[in-house]
């Protein structure tokens, strides 16, 4: 080994700019693989109200049950996958009553179930067996924009670390926020949340400068941005309480999002000086609820069908919080691989969550999807 003063002298011939340049990738971050997974139990939306009122022992509240049935009917959801089943509720009757302490038991179940579900999706996107020196970052409590936030971070990491491959493993389990309806409750957040949320995980591999003949570039990530909707504080909140995680979803949320969507998109596209025509893009929007998709589609003047991938995911799985946009991107991948992008090779991935935070990623269909 050279003496220390020789090492220092050698280091001076290399500038920090050189080191930085050598670390940076040449091309944009690119989605190289996507996969998804769900728990085994599939529950039909038609039967959900019966299940929910039975396992939470709330049959004495028939009016609330009828209301949940009405919401389920309008939800655009046909099925959801869930860890909550008769067995779990039999073992943990305290989950039904959010006044009883149950957070420890919920976290204990989730601490196994969340990584298990993520691990079910991840090998479908990558062969696991990662070195113990692989860097990990955990994001939690982001609500429905968590998956998009993770993809944005993956983009930063991939573009700033030549050769890096980033595995985004996003897993959501609604058990943490599952409890019974409250008698005399005028605030119906609980019913709406229980009509919408489901469980699932999505895994995405992001990297820049794909290796020819080994990797398959699916979507280039051209630009990413985050916007906070003005005066929206408190419109969506999630809070851990002793009886489980409590949700608040403001009644006017679909209107609020639709009223601000153009501004959010202008913030994103204005920053890169691109004037896109919304109709010319493909859309991967977080399907927070059927009415949110309806109103955004209307506000942007999109064709009926522009949100087909989001609607399909909502119908087949419900709102799986942060992981849902990964399912939507996977649906688009399948559609484009089968039918081509029909001229719309630029698109916007969008997700919303507490804040209200709106995240946007400008995507471009990449060579691994075109001509296949
Ligand atoms: C809930 C719906 C499917 C209901 O469909 P419609 O609005 O077309 O039907 P509707 O008007 O007949 O409503 C059916 C019943 O639901 C009630 N209702 C509707 N929206 C409600 C709300 N936000 N809170 C409480 N109750 C609500 C109505 O009063 C009505 O009750 P009655 O029948 O008694 O008159 C829809 O409104 C929807 O998709 N809303 C968006 C849901 C949402 O906010 N999702 C975001 C989740 S949060 C997220 O994604 C991000 C995150 O978590 O971070």
UniProtKB/TrEMBL annotation:
InterPro entries: Chalcone/stilbene_synt_C, Chalcone/stilbene_synt_N, Polyketide_synthase_type-III, Thiolase-like
All residue ranges annotated as the Chalcone/stilbene synthase N-terminal domain in the record: 17-125
One of the GO biological process terms: polyketide biosynthetic process
Domain (Chalcone/stilbene synthase C-terminal): residue spans on this chain: 220-364
Recorded superkingdom: Eukaryota
GO molecular function: acyltransferase activity, transferring groups other than amino-acyl groups
Keyword Transferase: yes
Composition-biased stretches (Low complexity): 1-17
Record key words, sorted: Acyltransferase, Transferase
Region annotation Disordered: where it falls in the sequence: 1-27
Active site: 144
CDD domains reported for this sequence: CHS_like (cd00831)
Keyword Membrane: no
Similarity-based family: Belongs to the thiolase-like superfamily. Chalcone/stilbene synthases family.
Protein name (database record): Chalcone synthase
Native source species: Oryza glumipatula
């Amino acid at each position: 080994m050279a003496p220390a003063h020789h090492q220092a002298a050698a280091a001076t011939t290399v500038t920090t700019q050189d080191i930085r340049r050598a670390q940076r990738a040449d091309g944009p971050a690119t989605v190289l693989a996507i996969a998804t997974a769900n728990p085994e139990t599939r529950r039909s939306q038609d039967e959900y109200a019966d299940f929910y009122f039975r396992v939470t022992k709330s049959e004495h509240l028939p009016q609330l049950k009828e209301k949940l049935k009405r919401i389920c009917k309008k939800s655009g959801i046909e099925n959801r996958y869930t860890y909550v089943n008769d067995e779990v509720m039999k073992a943990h009757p305290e989950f039904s009553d959010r006044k009883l302490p149950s957070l420890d038991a919920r976290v204990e179940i989730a601490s196994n179930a969340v990584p298990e579900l993520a691990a079910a999706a991840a090998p479908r996107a990558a062969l696991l067996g990662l070195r113990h020196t692989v860097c990990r970052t955990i994001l939690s409590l982001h609500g429905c924009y968590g998956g998009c936030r993770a993809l944005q971070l993956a983009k930063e990491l991939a573009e700033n670390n030549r050769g890096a491959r980033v595995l985004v493993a996003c897993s959501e389990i609604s058990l943490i926020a599952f409890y019974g309806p409250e008698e005399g409750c005028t605030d119906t957040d609980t019913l709406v949340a229980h009509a919408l949320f489901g469980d699932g995980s999505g895994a995405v591999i992001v990297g820049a400068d794909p290796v020819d003949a080994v990797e398959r570039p699916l979507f280039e990530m051209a630009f990413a941005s985050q916007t906070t909707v003005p005066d929206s504080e408190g419109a969506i909140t999630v809070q851990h309480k002793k009886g489980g995680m409590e949700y608040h979803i403001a009644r006017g949320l679909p209107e609020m999002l639709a009223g601000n969507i153009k501004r959010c998109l202008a913030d994103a596209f204005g920053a890169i000086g691109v004037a896109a025509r919304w109709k010319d893009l493909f859309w991967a929007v977080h399907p927070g609820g059927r009415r949110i998709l309806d109103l955004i589609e209307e506000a942007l003047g999109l064709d009926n069908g522009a949100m087909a991938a989001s609607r399909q995911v909502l119908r087949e799985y419900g709102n799986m919080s942060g992981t849902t946009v990964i399912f939507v991107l996977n649906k688009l991948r399948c559609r484009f691989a089968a039918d081509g992008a029909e001229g719309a090779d630029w698109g916007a991935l969008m997700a919303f969550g507490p804040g209200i935070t709106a995240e946007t990623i400008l995507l471009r269909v990449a060579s691994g999807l075109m001509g296949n």
